[in-house]
Specification:
919 residues, seven-stranded parallel sheet
Length: 919
């Protein structure tokens, strides 16, 4: 039956003969029963689509049907999941009906997702087409599906062996375990399709690296090369992510073919930046808060179901608490909170209520960012900056999660620096820009796990192991020397290593002659082989693999009397060096050292050097940072040509409310009037300002490098390292998304601008490596990588070693390991910190531009920080402990600037009218 005949059978609000169909060939390529089910389920939307399918479905279904690898990039709610599964289900139902004996008792399709909850959601969503199609097939043929991850109980796992799902939903970690499962791995030999969902969230970290190698190991064991389908709403660059998905042929030489379905911008967006006031400094905090919650309450009451994103879990809790306190209509029945610290049962309850549409508002941090289906959400509110266009689109895309609906999102900025950031972000989103995903490359720890796993499965040629790794995109350039470093670690080929209880994982040798002690008849004599070492190898592998690090909180004690004064998240320690001062419980402490999970510090009256919120906030993306610099360059041009009125006119072309327009224009007007246009960084200028703080007897350098916190964390370490050497003094550093501060005693002086001009790209990596020596950051990442590399075992003979115990073990190993030549775990620790955490490639690019003259370095002397430096200056202010303190310090800085430029009123009459209107 043809497409029009199927439409004519149903009772739709249009004439089946008159409607234009641009995809009749696609639906007619499906099995009759699949076709019938589809028209019954989605025929009502034909007019919205110009056919039976959404844009990603029209393009992807034929590709999957023909066995073509495909990356499907399309907005949330546009049907990516069914685009991936429709042709697969069609083929499985066809075989079940037509082939003798139907489908085998094995897996045909693997669905891999980053989250257990997402796998659960897809599992539920698959039930609808599977049951609907099955009803239309004679004999009720069964295409089975099941979910398997870390929470799957033993009885369910045993049942899968007896009655194997044809479609298996799993996570990267569980797939790696299944590849080494003596019984279940044989069930994977029949896999013909692999669907990788939310691929952007995997590709940018080591979970994605782990998955990439797992897929190549699956390639080795499968009867035929599986078709790979990747899905994402927000990913860039598409070509690189496509290569990541499909891997390479010929030992890393040639990327496999992959078709890209790019329908990312097929939905309508209604997004706007809002601000409670046009003056975030002089408006009292309680007024800003009242207006913010008033705005939020109005937005929620004007919509059916609202999802509110904050950037921290504590923020999500706080917003929900305040909504319930301020508005009597919100209670536990119609509002809720969702984040990773809540119990699984609490999260699942909220997820079900969202799917049912029974909650007026839910607050969350990042846990609802990925693909769980929430069809009733019609508004997303983002409080503060989500720090990247990709995150913005991912979050607001949760609204209007059905065909033809507009994506409605509101971003509310409560911070001056975030106003500019969000303005650029929303404009970029409207223009179709997406931040790039940076794939970690050549990670030794992940490679060690997989080589161990391959050796455990069978003795095999060394070349096969090399080829398997190099076919995975992250290892396509893995060199012969790197393989030697990897194998040397895995064979424990270092004197004294076994004395530290670090034993060989594999053996490596040439195949003996038939009369030799170790001969493997399936391989030629003399061929290099590898195999497992140790009787417990499989148990060690199965109970210790994975890439997600354990973490813990550290108890803080005073050195003198060993008094416990509180605890710190260990990631906060990444920012601390000996002598740094931090705030805990309203008191200042000087960090001295850490031993395992204990931190030792001295009470002090000295000013804090590291902000208390550092480890909580998301980092600004490097690409968005560059966009902000371009924006600032354009804005300065408008200022210099026609002044503040022209800037306001230009800003009204952005998706901003009037308060945001006036606040941004005012800030740059005050900046330029106080310190001149050269005080603002652009894509062609990196501005440094120097302040002599005589009250604290310190010299502060504010470096306005808007390239994001990872970049600034890395560059600040290089600059501080060089400053400390040049001035022979201790240097304090504070890092933010829009720059960093370097401080030293007033009687020490260096030329930071000249230091920046002198940094050549070739010197960045060695300088960073030197700057990391002895830091808490190095110690923590060594523990993480030693555990990932199975140098430290989390689980052994029934005992589970906690993260703090792992830290103690790693501290005993670090000094020994650093003295070994080319030791894989040390090399990976430095690589991960320098490349993945500190954005060294971006720093090298900017320093190359500086050396080439494409970016100039300017340095200005100021008596008080400029408006663009207010945020940086508050990081170093000795009297900032609470948010109220920060407001007071910001107001003091602002008053000084206004006095200097002769504008005690805080703005012109036009700006003042914006504030009164907001009330």
């Amino acid at each position: 039956m043809g497409a029009r005949e199927l439409l004519a059978r149903e009772d739709f609000d249009f004439d089946a003969e008159e409607v234009e169909l641009d995809d009749a060939a696609v639906i007619e390529s499906l099995e009759p029963e699949v076709r019938e089910w589809w028209v019954e389920e989605f025929g009502a939307y034909v007019l919205d689509n110009g056919g039976f399918f959404t844009p990603p479905q029209k393009e992807a279904i034929p590709l999957v049907r023909d066995g073509e690898n495909a990356l499907v990039a399309s907005p949330t709610g546009s049907g990516k999941t069914l685009a991936s599964f429709t042709a697969i289900l069609n083929e499985l139902f066809r075989r079940e009906r037509e082939e003798d004996g139907g489908l085998d008792n094995s897996v045909y399709c693997l669905y891999v997702s980053p989250l257990k909850s997402l796998a659960n959601d897809i599992h539920r969503n698959l039930e609808v087409p599977l049951e609907g199609i099955a009803e239309k097939m004679d004999g009720d043929p069964a295409v089975r599906h099941a979910i398997r991850h870390g929470d799957t109980d033993d009885s369910a796992r045993q049942r899968m062996l007896r009655e194997t799902p044809h479609i298996l939903n799993t996570t990267p970690e569980t797939l790696a375990i299944l590849l080494n499962s003596p019984k279940f791995k044989k069930k994977l030999e029949s896999v013909e399709y692999v669907v990788v969902d939310e691929i952007h969230s995997l590709a940018g970290g080591k979970r994605g690296t782990h998955l990439a190698v797992s897929l190549e190991r699956l390639e080795n064991m499968a009867d035929s090369s599986p078709t790979r389908i990747g899905c994402s709403a927000t990913v860039e660059p598409l070509s690189d992510i496509a290569d990541f998905l499909v891997g390479c042929e010929d030992g890393g030489e040639t990327p496999r073919d992959c078709e890209i379905v790019d329908t990312r911008f097929v939905r309508e967006f209604d997004i706007e930046l809002q601000c409670p006031t046009d003056d975030l400094i002089d408006t009292p905090r309680e007024v800003v808060n009242d207006r913010f919650y008033g705005q939020l309450g109005d937005l929620i009451s004007d919509h059916t179901n609202t999802l509110v994103f904050t950037n921290t879990r504590s923020g999500a809790e706080r917003v929900l608490h305040n909504l319930r306190e301020r508005f009597a209509e919100y209670d536990e029945e119609n509002s809720g909170c969702h984040h990773g610290s809540l119990s699984k049962e609490a999260r699942q309850s909220i997820e079900q209520d969202l799917k049912d549409g029974s909650l007026d508002v839910v607050t969350t941090s990042t846990s609802l960012e990925l693909g769980i289906d929430m069809p009733h959400i019609d508004l997303v509110v983002q409080v503060g900056s989500p720090k990247s266009v990709a995150s913005l689109l991912q979050r607001v895309g949760r609204a209007g999660h059905q065909l033809g609906q507009t994506v409605t999102g509101r971003v509310i900025a409560l911070d001056r620096d975030e106003l500019v950031e969000c303005a650029v972000m929303l404009k970029k989103a409207e223009e179709g820009f997406v931040d790039r995903v940076f794939v970690p490359e050549e990670a030794y720890d992940v490679a060690a796990q997989h080589v161990y796993g391959m050796a455990i499965n069978a003795v095999r040629p060394e070349q096969e192991v090399r080829d398997t790794l190099q076919r995975a995109y992250p290892y396509r350039n893995f060199s012969a020397d790197q393989f030697e470093t990897l194998f040397r670690y895995l064979t424990s080929d270092y004197e004294g290593l076994e004395d530290k209880n670090v034993y060989a994982k594999i053996w490596r040798d040439e195949n003996d002659p038939p009369d030799g002690e170790y001969h493997y008849p399936e391989y030629d004599v003399g061929r290099p082989l590898i195999g497992k070492r140790g009787k417990l190898a499989r148990v060690i592998y199965m109970t210790n693999i994975g890439t997600i690090p354990d973490s813990f909180t550290c108890d803080v004690f005073t050195r003198g009397d060993n008094e416990w004064v509180g605890d710190l998240d260990e990631s906060y320690l990444d920012t601390l060096e000996k002598g740094d001062v931090f705030v805990l419980g309203g008191q200042n402490f000087e960090f001295k050292y850490r031993r395992g999970s204990k931190v030792y510090a001295d009470r002090t009256n000295a000013r804090p050097t590291v902000p208390s919120w550092f480890s909580e906030r998301l980092p600004l993306s490097y690409d968005l940072g560059r966009g902000i610099l371009e924006f600032q360059g354009e804005l300065l041009e408008k200022f210099q040509k026609r002044g503040k009125p022209a800037v306001r006119v230009w800003l009204r072309e952005f998706p901003l409310d009037e308060n945001s327009v006036r606040a941004i224009a005012r800030m740059f007007d005050e900046q330029v009037r106080y310190a001149g246009p050269e005080s603002v960084s652009t894509d062609e200028r990196l501005a440094v300002e120097v302040e002599l703080d005589r009250s604290e007897y310190e010299r502060h350098y504010y470096v306005h490098s808007n390239y994001g916190r990872k970049f600034n964390d890395g560059l600040s370490r290089v600059v501080a390292y060089r400053c400390a050497n040049a001035a022979n003094t201790n240097v304090s550093v504070a890092v933010a998304d829009h720059g960093f501060t370097v401080s030293m005693p007033l009687n020490r002086k260096v030329d930071v601008a000249e230091i920046l001009r002198d940094i050549s790209p070739e010197e960045v990596r060695p300088d960073l490596r030197n700057a990391l020596d002895g830091t808490e950051l190095l110690q923590r990442y060594f523990r993480i990588n030693a555990t990932r590399s199975l140098m430290i075992l989390k689980r052994y003979k029934g005992y589970e070693k906690s993260a703090s115990e792992q830290q103690v073990s790693s501290e005993m190993l670090l000094g020994f390991a650093e003295d070994l030549d080319d030791f894989a775990v040390i090399e990976e620790t430095y690589r991960e910190i320098i490349e993945d955490k500190l954005a060294v490639s971006a720093i090298e690019d900017v320093m190359a531009d500086v050396q080439a003259g494409a970016v100039e370095i300017t340095q200005n002397r100021v008596d008080t920080p400029t408006p663009k430096a207010f945020g940086l200056a508050t990081l170093m202010a000795s009297d900032v402990v609470l948010a109220e303190d920060e407001s007071a310090v910001l107001q003091e800085f602002h008053d000084r600037v206004l006095d200097e430029i002769g504008d005690g009123s805080g703005g012109d009459a036009g700006d003042a009218s914006g504030a009164s209107a907001a009330e």
